Automatic annotation (TrEMBL):
<dbReference type="InterPro" id="IPR050260">
    <property type="entry name" value="FAD-bd_OxRdtase"/>
</dbReference>
<protein>
    <submittedName>
        <fullName>Phenylglyoxylate:acceptor oxidoreductase</fullName>
    </submittedName>
</protein>
<dbReference type="InterPro" id="IPR036188">
    <property type="entry name" value="FAD/NAD-bd_sf"/>
</dbReference>
<comment type="similarity">
    <text>Belongs to the FAD-dependent oxidoreductase family.</text>
</comment>
<dbReference type="GO" id="GO:0016491">
    <property type="term" value="F:oxidoreductase activity"/>
</dbReference>
<feature type="domain" description="FAD/NAD(P)-binding">
    <location>
        <begin position="9"/>
        <end position="287"/>
    </location>
</feature>
<dbReference type="InterPro" id="IPR054806">
    <property type="entry name" value="PadH"/>
</dbReference>
<keyword id="KW-0274">FAD</keyword>
<keyword id="KW-0285">Flavoprotein</keyword>
<dbReference type="InterPro" id="IPR023753">
    <property type="entry name" value="FAD/NAD-binding_dom"/>
</dbReference>
<dbReference type="Pfam" id="PF07992">
    <property type="entry name" value="Pyr_redox_2"/>
</dbReference>
Amino acid sequence: MEPAMEQTQYLVVGSSHAALEAISAIRMHDATGTLTVVTRDAHLPYSPTVLPYVVSGKSAPERVFLRDDDFFARNAVSYRPGAGLAALHADSNTAELADGTRLAYDKLLLATGTSPAIPPIPGIDTVSYHVLRTLDDALGLREAIAQSRQAVVLGAGLVGMHAAENLVKAGASVTIVEMSDQLTAGYFDKVAAQMIEQAFTDNGAKILTGSRVVRLEPSSVGARLTLANGQSLEADLLLVATGVKPNLEYLNGSGVAFDHGILVDDTMRTSVANVWAAGDCAQAKHFFSPTPRVNAILPSATEQGRLAGMAMAGDAGIKPYAGGVPLNTYHFFGRHAISVGSSEAPEGSEVLTRFDEKTGRYLKAIFRDGRLAGIFGVNEFFDGGIMCQLIVRRMDLTADKERLVADPLKVGRELMSRTWR
């Protein structure tokens, strides 16, 4: 006999930033509607951004949670960890969980995040490797790092670089293999990437950019990697950090339209009735492009989650999504880098840069028609949130460009206090 179907007014699938913002937005408008959160993760909510600090030991695992049981009790939320979504039957407003439970909903938010994208390298299924996307991944990697003497990191995005630094500091011999011709492509330009690379090589890491692994096989050490140029590497710890992809398998047959992510409108509504999507799994309006994009960063997840929650609860105060603006911060070997906005400088753009080799300070700002399009710095202090607002509000900075580049922290705050009333 099939178990009785459970019923909830609001069903939220996922438990990180987008989901939590949606819960708060729903409860601001509807204090009593039944609200259920299901998540495949076994833990209380946490941010993926904290995982590198769990690996390094800087953050204790028991202290990383964004909400506690008391929060869910106060907000009358049924929180169900370890319950992944297996299938969505949107025609009958029903969600089917991995354990066979069926939940009927009035309104559904998909905030299911991403999983590591594993490259199709021949032999990858014959060797042991680590990924870093969940708290359990972080705890496993932390334990392995303590034992490692010879590590290889595939991928030089921010996740791979964080882990590589922890390995270097733990005393391992570390090689980073990256297909692109620079580190941190998509976040920083070549000048900034070169500064980051220098910090790693100064600390003993080997960096192989423009390199591709063509074969993996078990070896006496752990894994042997063969590169396209014929070079061979041995690893007792292999970390695969070659990007992420949204979790969309449960959508098959649901009628919910998706491309790289779940396609949503400016209030995070999907192509089917009563279903919204937000965060890393959503493909939403992008500030710099007519084509919707997955913008897998924390500020986008929180904003999208808030809008989805408002829309689900019928909050009349909702304003359409302005579009995602990339914002990333990165700390490495006591230094920091930050990137906000678009790194593209089409013809007619004005690019202002300054670089002080002695202090290792680098700043680059891109303006289009006197308006800020992107700003990037290494060892430079400025407020990423303010820069984001300067971009989104399309403020005319013609009279302030040089001052902003000279002192972005001070001038950014001054512009904010002068104009944001």
